[in-house]
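TL;DR need structure tokens for one chain.
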Amino acid sequence: MAKSLLTAFGSLFCLLLTPAAGVAAALVQNPSFEDSFAGTFPHYGPVESWAGGSGTNQAAGPFHNGGTPIPDRGQMAFLQGSNRLSQQIVGLTPGQTYWIQYFYDGRACCGGTVDLALEWDGAVLDTVQGVVPSTGGSPYKFKNVSFVPSNAEGNLAFVTSASGDATVLIDAVSIVPGDPARIVVINPSFEASGTPPAPGGPIMIAGWNSSGLGLAGVNDATGPFVDNGTIPDQDRAVVLQGDASISQTLRGLGTGENYTVTYRYNAGTGNAPNLVVSIDGTSIAEQNAIVPVGGVAQWRTATGTFRAAAGTALLTFSQTAGGDQTVLIDDVRVAGTVVEPLPNLKIGPANLEVAPGGSEVVSFTVSGRRLEQGAATVTARIFNPLIARFVGEDLNGEIRLNFPANGGDTTLTAEVEGLARGTTLVQILDNGGHEGVDGSVNIHAVTSFVRNPSFESSPPAAGVGYGPIPAWTTSTTGFGVNNSAMPFFDNGVVPDRNQVAFIQQGPKSLSQSIRGLTSGQRYAVQAFYNARTSAETDSISFTVNFGGQQIHSVSNVTAVGVGNPFHFLNAPFVATGETGLLEFTTSSTGDATLLLDGISIIPQQANEIVVKNPSFEASGLPSGVGYLPAIAGWNFVGGHGINIDAAGPFSDNGISGAQDRVGFLQSPASFSQILEGLTPNATYSLSYSVNARSGDTAGPTPYRVMVDGLELVNVDQEPVGAGMPYDVVVISFVPADSIAELKFEVTAAGGPAADQSLLLDDIRITPAASGVSVPIMIRLIGGNSVSLSWPSSAPGSLVLQSSTSMATNSWRNVDAVPFEEGGNKQVIDVLDGPRKFYRLVQP
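>> reply
TL;DR here they are.
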């Protein structure tokens, strides 16, 4: 008796009385992520049979892109931020070639960027840089990665490396026998669907499209349709019932080449189906009135041959017998000449930093082999048109690059203009006939004055590191980036993160156009520098120029030596306009090299004590969640790093407003640096912006501020809230010497295991009238009103003053009378200009 998908569930009790078909264990468990689902929005939770990951989503979930079809069944796994999803795989044959197949996508949300690596036993097999979201109904991307295991088991892992709040989606993971002499068939053994849903009915089958009035589904040896014989490969097979077909497009064929399609087939008990296999609509094999093999016998094998008419062909399996007939199919293989695909379209750079109102260039490189076939057109757009745009784009935000045939230019460029702070990416809508795209372009529109200040936007070039430096213009050759394992960076401790720039010999110039300055405002260029170890007769000197004027010079830079910090410079200048050119220009004798790192521009008053990297701008774009191995100018203990202001994940509330970045301390931790140029026994005012991460669960973040061990502040910091400015603290101190250690320290109230984070920015020190040390807490309370408070225990004779410039004769008394609240004296004042400074003085 034939069984119907619509009624088979009711037949399961009877089927359990029949002998079970043979079983070969599936290599990947829960490959389609259907076995677990956390019902509470947004569906964070464990992923059954997998370690790590963030959870699973369905089509309506917040991480899946609306309109994009889920590759297999109804759920996928998601990895938010820098994450890892892994499973221990057993049952492999050592030395055999396998294909790891999977589908992936990126969440079209939240401005972050993310790379996806596939690992086997910790070794990277493949990496997708800058996962591009599928939108507008576009499908997930597919990967087929070949590997040869040396053991019968190993660890399969998907590893994401994210900047900002970015998410990768994974679905339909399978491992199948592979062969370099075979055409890749997606999901050839139908293992990507996992445990079939009762009663094994119609589902989305990864890699295959279904059609016809009948039904297509996946079964395993528990039936109800795969009820006899031994499944050829692993656990599952496809079921075609009634008028049903499945098909997929084969790629990598050679025009005019011959190919053989091999497949295993069977029939459900009591059925006599017909199976027709076709290529591009033409039958290449047929089996009629198929007899079930019965028991645990092996399924039958069949083949069909075809000559490829083009580089692609549509492979279709159809059940054609009338009535309620069911055919079973497994282990589909296509053998023949595998044509090496065209090299992918290449785009770059990986990270493009552009200022709002400024522009940078994206490059597109097509294959010479592609142009031998004729002209090619590449179409691209920018995913978020509010952050950046292509100069010359059409009304749809698209730009087309036309490559002429037969030896024309293989590389063309397009100009990207920044519009507003944020992160987006370049989407390739048409890759010009290539198989795919190598690389990605993540666009970072930044309001920090200096872009790529720590030279981390791209890895060092091959060889000794010569190559272009993103966001910087070089005058000639002899420039590049090195890490500590490379020849130019041969001494000193890296000031910031992992890489430094080098300028070999001179005269040469490294420059960048700076935007967003305020005309008449005093600023300072800060940088860390060193020289490559060289012969005594070799030397290198350099100048720092801004707007064509020299603002600093260093003669005969000395190598600091192994294990020592780089030299530091602080070069003041007054902006004469909104823009200006920053230049580092060298002169040299012999083969000498200048090393540069941690370059930033900060507002700085004439009487300020120099704080190195006071706004944490010298580190550039954070990677992952923002942890860094080194931050220019600061010594540290414990968890530390930088985040983009208001972008998170640590800076998840509030707005600092001092350029793009803030520093964070994750308890227990501290930042410190040595201040120089102090006048002993004089009074100074320390001001800083501060906030706490809102995601902390252990309550307010306790922190303290010390100068040479003397505690100035010891308070609990609450999050200021979304859209609110950071709290500004102003406190006086009196140093005993010309140098002193400034230290910010976080100790978790909940003990070492508590996760509490402090956010810091805009740390400034200025001379003040001598007196007691009293902290002022400043908070915007709505509109242009500001609350200022200080401890009630402070002397009652103190007077609150304000200034718009901090100039000596600009301070005026605040007329409002303080009132008592919560152990503090409080004053409400009105901000009547773009900036205002406050202090407490003793008349």
